Amino acid sequence: MKKLLNNWIVQVLLFLSLLGLTAYGSQMINDIIPPYLLMIAFFIGINLIMALGLNLITGVTGQLSLGHAAFMSIGAYSSAIATVNFDLPFLLGVLIGGLIASVFGVIIGFPTLRLTGDYLAISTLGFAEIVRVQFTNMKITNGAIGFLGIEGSTTFPIVMTIAVLMICLMVWLENSRNGRAMLAIREDEVASSAVGINTTLYKIQAFAIGAFCAGVGGALFAHTTTFIQPTDFGFQKSVDILSIVVLGGLGSIPGTIIGAIVLTAAPEILRPLSNYRMIVYGLLLVVIMIFRPYGLMGGVNLRQAVRRAMMFPKKKQAGREE
Amino acid sequence: MPILNNLMQQLVNGLALGSIYALIALGYTMVYGIIGMINFAYGEIFMFGAYAGLVLALTNYVNVYVALLGATFITMVLGVVIERVAYRPLRRSSRLSALISAIGVSFFLSSLMVRVKGPNTRGFPTLFENRIFEIGDFQITIYQIVIIGVAGLLMLSLHLFVTYSKMGRAMRACAQDQDAASLMGVNIDRVISVTFAIGSGLAGAAGVLAGIYFNAVQPYMGLLAGLKAFAAAVLGGIGSIPGAMIGGLVIGLTEILGVTVNLSEYKDAFAFAILILVLLFKPSGIMGRKANKKV
Amino acid sequence: MSLLTLDNVTIRFGGLTAVDTVNLEINQGEILALIGPNGAGKSTVFNLITSIYQPTEGTISLAGKPLVGIPTHKIAEMGITRTFQTIRLFSELSVLDNVKIGAHCRGKAGLFQAFTRLPGMKREEAEIEEKAIKALEFLDLATKCEEMAKNLSYGEQRRLEIARALVSKPKLLLLDEPAAGMNPQEKVVLMEMIRRIRDTGITIFLVEHDMKLVMGISERIAVLDYGKLIAEGTPLEVRSNNAVIEAYLGSGKFKSRIRR
Questions:
Q1: What CA–CA distances, in Å, run from C89 to A30, A184, A301, C101, C158?
Q2: N or C: which end of chain C has fewer CB within 10 A?
Q3: How many of the other CB atoms lie within 10 Å of CB of B249?
Q4: Nearest CA to CA, how far is A92 from chain C (Å)?
Q5: All domains of chain C in start order, with CATH
């Protein structure tokens, strides 16, 4: 049985059936739950996709980015242009959105590699502001007025399937040579290069993949709301996504999932209090940092549990203690 | 020579704007110099100062000096409280935690102000009559004179304070080596509190000046102003007080010059473009010293 | 045969010459110790070899291949790994992961492999894991595999750093004060370990303050003072070298340290 599970083809089949099951299950949910709840579920999925990307950049690789909304906006606008101006199919538009965002991830990744910590954070923020100003002044994006007439092609099964796909990819990445190198960079850059890790390369990879996620999320967002404008992608949006990652626990994928659910659903559930949402957000960030600097799921060793379940189910574990 | 006149005129405008940025930049630079963190909430302290000035100005008995002093005092207290509550517990944690906490404070303050005073832009009551002086071919308003004058005075007093007072010496010692300073009997907590108080007070004063100058106060005004001031601090060389002044003036001038050459839609992007360029090519800034990597 | 050659290596930080025209050869398979008073520039020499600093003048070469100007991460690939004076572990990661990361430069898998998980990638993962566990067994840490690195004792952390440096099978291992903070029993064990590492064919270059350890295991000792190499030779020669005694003792109050 174990041998069978370790076979690559079996694993691929299992993976595909997981995706199929997700698509089927979310179609069922789509048909039964009321539209209002469905909308919340949509945004949980979209936020989760984007937050997984930021989790890779900030949580795993330790590079604080305050410009995630910029990648989102690049994905949103380029996919909208692809489907509206060039009549391309929706899913291709999503892919294009992700790829173009990813290219910008590399472009912003390159120069900022020379920076660390606070300086990096501020320059990503500056980059995001420049991108926003640029979108406000471009003709093709219809400037500050906003991009109208995007088709609402995003469906719930698509969002959920992409989200599950992204989760799988992230878990795999974290448990690979590349993922370990990224974690090492977060922990200690000097020691990382001393063991032979090309820190530049892996930071760029993290930025590229993280930006790709944000771009895909942005594309899905654009084709959900059917209307986007530069103010949708301000600093606040970047902080929204960062809060998801921080609340869940930097570097923790289960944490990111929980964070996405809680922070997307909570304002809706507390609708009467929604005026205080931003105040609570602010306080929450401070309080979490003081009392649980590693987030809700920080220090909970699910990563190792997942790895044991997924990768090395049989190796030399008897002698090891948790 | 209309172009030259125009340029002189823009230099004066840029100087006034730059003085405001420089005042906020001083706070960033002082805190960074001493505890090595970016107090992300400075922009919001600036905004609070503007509102405090507004509220004071709306009571009929208050003149401009009282509004300025009152706002400065209120933001000083605010700065000290923020440091106590949100930063001090994190002093030994990672910089990421402290930065995120600061972002939290910044969100908290701006959204609190939206709740209390509403999201709309408010005008500033006239505290004194604006007059225009013609010097040669260009004009300077009394507002601009007051802004440049007050900013200059504050910077000069800060410089004297840091250079000659006992507390100033303690601050410089802490910036060099906190542990050593504390072994020499410097009360680190107090020095940090004083630093926050001074920095926040300067930001608060800048807020009132900006409110008078632009005749507009708004809960989100702090974010952009704060970021530009931070850009100014980095440009000048973070940790350096004269650097912050020079950086502020440079950012103010570029912004105004950008508007002059018809790039006003991009004016908010200038500071960031400069910031990123500086970080890339001379991370230590104009007045900063190059630090050797310690291994 | 010389494995690593430092030729007229000099580095200045502003006005300070931290390492001053140092000429040094490390022979294949030996244990060489670099000693000297605090601030003599010993760790700087390590940072120069691993390209963390670039020399102001001079060249460094590994078996004839120049190292100056090569990025730090390539140095490990070429066969030089190191430990740090102030322990630099990946403290929030498990002991096993720390060592696996040490094997990074011997792996090949990239993003494609990470996302496709083809059998080849899994084989490489299994190999890395096996190597890592072997290295941990070698340093007597195998029982701590799943522990977080930050939860280990000081001595264990030092050994974990060695395991991490060892797993990529370097030609040359640089140990920066490996015994610092260890108790006497741990030091004895460490000495034994260093010898065993050398016996697997790895050349060892160490910086150390503990004279007992240095005198006990080194075949040759080089002495650095104010950035200059003032003596070089067998432990016996160095012990009786006047310049060394001068540098170390000065007023004479550290005599015990050398005579011990």
A1: 48, 9, 19, 11, 9
A2: N
A3: 22
A4: 20
A5: 1-79+170-260 (3.40.50.300), 91-169 (no CATH)
Which residue in the block uniquely carries the two structure tokens 């076979």? A7
Tens of pLDDT, residue by residue over B75-92, are 999 999 999 999 988 887
Give the H or E element holding residue C88. none
**C-chain residue closest to A181, CA distance:** C101
Q: Where are the domains of chain A?
A: 34-235
Q: What is the ipTM of this complex?
A: 0.89
| Cα-to-chain-centroid distance, residue A1 | 35
CB contact under 8 A, B295 and C43: yes
Shortest Cα–Cα distance, A186 to chain C (Å): 8
Contact C84 B293 (CB under 8 A): no
Instruction: Test C13 with B292 for CB contact under 8 angstroms.
Output: yes
Please give the average per-residue pLDDT across A285-310, as a whole number.
68
d(CA C231, CA C223): 5
Residue found under tokens 């007059």: B131
Nearest CA in chain B to A187: B94
DSSP assignment of chain B equals -HHHHHHHHHHHHHHHHHHHHHHHHHHHHHHHHHH----TTHHHHHHHHHHHHHHHHHSTT--HHHHHHHHHHHHHHHHHHHIIIIIGGGTTS-HHHHHHHHHHHHHHHHHHHHHHH-SS-B----SS---EEEETTEEEEHHHHHHHHHHHHHHHHHHHHHHHSHHHHHHHHHHH-HHHHHHTT--HHHHHHHHHHHHHHHHHHHHHHHHHHHT-B-TTHHHHHHHHHHHHHHHH-TT-HHHHHHHHHHHHHHHHHHHHTT-GGGHHHHHHHHHHHHHHH-TTTTTPPPPPPP-
Delimit the domains of chain B by residue range: 2-281
Q: Do C125 and A321 touch (CB under 8 A)?
A: no
> What does the alpha-carbon distance between residue B87 and residue A55 come to, in Å, rounded to a whole number?
24
Instruction: State whether CATH 1.10.3470 applies to domain B2-281.
Output: yes
Residue C253: is its pLDDT beyond 50?
no
